Amino acid sequence: MSNQGEVYDNVEGILAKLHVLRDSCAGVMHKEESNPNLIWFQGAETLLQEAVDELQKALSALEGGSA
Q1: CA within 13 Å, CB half, 11
Q2: Is residue 39 predicted with pLDDT exceeding 60?
Q3: Which of 1, 26, 35, 44 is the least crowded, having the fewest Cβ atoms under 10 Å away?
Q4: Is there a contact between 35 and 2 (Cβ–Cβ < 8 Å)?
């Protein structure tokens, strides 16, 4: 556990998992151009990027003590 506390560690863990999932979608998208599910992966990557961005903001707020 970090010095930031349990909530910080939980958000950090979620963020790490979302990074892996987002990068997996991007990897599929770039490797399988003819994939019939390409649109799904593009949408998933976009939604995951938004989640990553919002959680990164929350993590920064927790680091700064504003939460």
Answers
A1: 20
A2: yes
A3: 1
A4: no
